[in-house]
Amino acid sequence: QEMVEEGATPGMPAGPPITEGERQNFILAIRRCWNVDVGSEAADVVVTIRFNMTPDGMPVSSSITQVSATGGTDTAQRAAYDSGRRAILRCAVEGSGYDLPSEKYAQWQQVEVTFNPAEMRMR
């Protein structure tokens, strides 16, 4: 079960909540570019990455940071983070940004995505 926690940016109108469908589409868009080598140590790592988004649905590359990582060695955690970071950037560039509702920008201006080889979630 993928979990998403919403938090409106202070000072921004929250707008209507993000629907489950919008959330799932965002997750699936990132997952399409996320490659996990099943045999690698990184396949045992769960990494959460936080990043800011521009109003046109593009991730701000300088804002991408690792929030947490569990499992594997330091090297495996770094590889898992790099893999997630690449997926976030590559999938946005392939199209014209992520397809997210502009009127709800306050809710997806900053997101956290958990890359878990067993599941994946966004909040």
Overview of this structure, please?
- Strands 2-1-3-4 form a 4-stranded antiparallel sheet.
- It has helices at residues 20-32, 74-94, 105-108, and strands at 46-52, 65-70, 110-116, 119-122.
- The chain starts with 19 loop residues before the first helix and ends with a strand.
- With 123 residues, it is α+β, with helices and mostly antiparallel strands.
- Helix content is 31%, strand content 20%.
- The radius of gyration is 14 Å and the shape is elongated.
- It is built from 3 helices and 4 strands.
- Helix 1 (20-32) crosses helix 2.
Fill in the keyword field for this structure.
4-stranded antiparallel sheet, alpha+beta, 123 residues, 31% helix, elongated, single chain
Summarize the structure.
31% of the residues lie in helices and 20% in strands.
SSE blueprint and pairings:
Elements: H1 20-32, E1 46-52, E2 65-70, H2 74-94, H3 105-108, E3 110-116, E4 119-122
Antiparallel strand pairs: 1-2, 1-3, 3-4
Number of strands: 4
Give Rg in angstroms: 14 Å
Overall body shape: elongated
Mean pLDDT: 84
- Please state the structural category: alpha+beta
What's the number of helices?
A: 3
